[in-house]
């Protein structure tokens, strides 16, 4: 019964995700036929009606996970060929805005069942993160000082929508059982890895699939290997590779601690997918990060099966041996006489960024302004860099990228926001928590990968995922260390848990007695 309910919830979330992609495609391309519009309307109605049978918060959270795979966006009066963030134009709307609307609806339904007048006030009142407010504050400053509003305002729109959704995510995860959060994470990352691997296989087989409305990037030849640079539903192989690394980091602890076949499938698919992107940064960083997870689990007092460690090592060795030829060619291509100049280009890009940063080190040049500023402001020390790649594409380092956009202030606020969350995860890991270990490693992947790539800010999907993972981390910490916020309970219920169990008809067991709140029957054992 539980498996069937979970399957229906995932299907409802999947239809909601397709609904958003179809709506955005309709407004941007205006090529959806009447049948498609009927399907979209039906999917939206299905999402609404599902709240009558299932927990509104579970539906909202499940939809939030699946929507992450979609890179659809609508930009009014877009500026063609502008690279940076979500692009440039008069107005931006994307997946975070749809999730925000769904969150308001689902939380309002949930709160209405408590017979409380504070439908939306409580999430905002109790779940505000001060470090997030500081970060968003300096993002706002960066947007205001930007010389190119067409690029800064859409990016500011994205940040504000993510910060708003973050509050609803924290509110929802705090009210969910830990086991349900674990099942959602394992189920989503396994399903996501499966979907992306299917698309990767199709892209290798026939090239571009025409899934632009899902966020598919350009599939072209990869330097040093004989297969194309796959993108899945991401805009570039780099973000796809980082996503696979996050999948591996989340699933790995559950493989070592418990017999979870779904986690094993997801981890294996993610490992193969990460290698098939042929991202050298990802391949180099994942081995020490996985070893770090093993150390953290042992540090938290969690017993690990030596047999499982050996088997996972053997599986990794087999995967590496299968792709060893192409991996070696990919790394050999870094030699100075190779046609692949990415290694030298990185340092040239870093040097160019530092030249501009030294001129405006405190507040930077403005949000999403790299292409505009570097084309307009030709500093003498950067004039020798003539290739347009360095001016069109932001620097491939998230720390220099943030420093350029918002100065040292924005960079420090970002590190404070992420670093404080990771510090709290370490405190939870010391108590022997497996989930927190995976979350810590996932955030570490984002920070390490950001040293040589800007995939976190290339589009919106990975930034969206980072906010989602940090919301889960924040909710877990608050449940563990802080008192539960006061909730108005009326209607004869003892507390919020008692109300939820009665409403959803879930059996509550403990200490020899079973109470079936859904039917009103009460039976007591010895």
TrEMBL record:
Signal peptide as annotated in the record: none
Alphabetical keyword list: Ligase, Membrane, Transmembrane, Transmembrane helix
InterPro entries noted in UniProt: O-antigen_ligase-rel_domated (IPR007016), WaaL-like (IPR051533)
Membrane topology according to the record: Multi-pass membrane protein
Pfam family, one: Wzy_C
Top-level taxon of origin: Bacteria
Region annotation Disordered: where it falls in the sequence: 507-526
Record's keyword annotation contains Membrane: yes
Residue stretches in coiled coil: none
Record domain O-antigen ligase-related: where: 266-415
GO molecular function per UniProt: ligase activity
Annotated transmembrane regions: 7-26, 32-50, 57-76, 82-110, 131-150, 156-173, 185-205, 234-255, 262-279, 285-302, 309-327, 398-418, 439-457, 463-481
CC terms in the record's Gene Ontology section: membrane
Membrane recorded as keyword: yes
Compartment list: Membrane
Main subcellular localisation: membrane
Protein name: O-antigen ligase family protein
């Amino acid at each position: 019964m539980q498996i069937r309910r979970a399957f229906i919830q995932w299907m409802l979330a999947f239809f909601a995700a397709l609904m958003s992609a179809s709506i955005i495609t309709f407004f941007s391309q205006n090529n959806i036929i009447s049948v498609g519009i009927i399907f979209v309307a039906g999917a939206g109605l299905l999402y609404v009606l599902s709240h009558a049978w299932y927990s509104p918060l579970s539906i909202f959270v499940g939809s939030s996970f699946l929507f992450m795979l979609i890179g659809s966006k609508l930009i009014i009066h877009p500026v063609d060929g502008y690279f940076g963030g979500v692009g440039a134009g008069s107005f931006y709307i994307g997946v975070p805005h749809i999730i925000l609307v769904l969150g308001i609806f689902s939380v309002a339904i949930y709160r209405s069942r408590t017979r409380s007048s504070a439908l939306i006030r409580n999430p905002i009142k109790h779940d505000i993160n001060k470090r997030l407010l500081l970060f968003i504050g300096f993002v706002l400053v960066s947007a205001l000082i930007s010389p190119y509003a067409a690029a800064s305002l859409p990016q500011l729109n994205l940040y504000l929508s993510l910060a708003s959704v973050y509050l609803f995510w924290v509110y929802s995860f705090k009210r969910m059982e830990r086991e349900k959060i674990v099942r959602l994470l394992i189920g989503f990352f396994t399903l996501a890895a499966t979907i992306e691997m299917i698309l990767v296989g199709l892209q290798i087989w026939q090239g571009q699939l025409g899934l632009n409305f899902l966020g598919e990037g350009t599939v072209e030849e990869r330097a040093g290997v004989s297969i194309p640079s796959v993108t899945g539903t991401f805009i570039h192989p780099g973000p796809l590779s980082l996503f696979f690394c996050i999948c591996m980091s989340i699933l790995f602890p559950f493989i070592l601690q418990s017999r979870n076949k779904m986690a094993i499938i997801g981890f294996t698919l993610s490992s193969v997918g990460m290698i098939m992107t042929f991202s050298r940064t990802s391949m180099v960083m994942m081995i020490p990060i996985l070893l770090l997870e093993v150390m953290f689990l042992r540090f938290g007092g969690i017993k690990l099966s030596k047999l499982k460690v050996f088997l996972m090592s053997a599986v990794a060795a087999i995967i590496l041996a299968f792709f060893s030829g192409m991996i070696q060619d990919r790394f050999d291509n870094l030699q100075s006489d190779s046609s692949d100049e990415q290694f030298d280009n990185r340092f040239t890009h870093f040097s160019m960024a530092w030249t501009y940063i030294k001129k405006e080190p405190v507040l930077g040049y403005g949000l999403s302004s790299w292409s505009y500023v570097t084309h307009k402001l030709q500093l003498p020390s950067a004039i020798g860099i003539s290739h347009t790649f360095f001016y069109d594409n932001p620097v491939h380092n998230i720390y220099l990228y943030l420093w350029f956009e918002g100065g040292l202030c924005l960079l420090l606020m970002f590190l404070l926001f992420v670093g404080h969350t990771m510090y709290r995860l370490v405190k939870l890991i010391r108590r022997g928590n497996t989930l927190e270990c995976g979350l810590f490693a996932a955030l570490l992947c984002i920070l390490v990968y950001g040293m040589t790539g800007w995939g976190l800010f290339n589009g919106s999907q990975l930034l969206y995922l980072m906010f989602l993972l940090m919301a889960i981390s924040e909710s877990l910490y608050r449940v563990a260390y802080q008192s539960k916020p006061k909730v108005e309970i009326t209607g004869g219920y003892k507390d919020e848990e008692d109300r939820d169990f009665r409403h959803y008809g879930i059996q509550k067991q403990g200490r020899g007695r079973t109470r079936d709140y859904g039917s009103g029957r009460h039976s007591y054992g010895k």
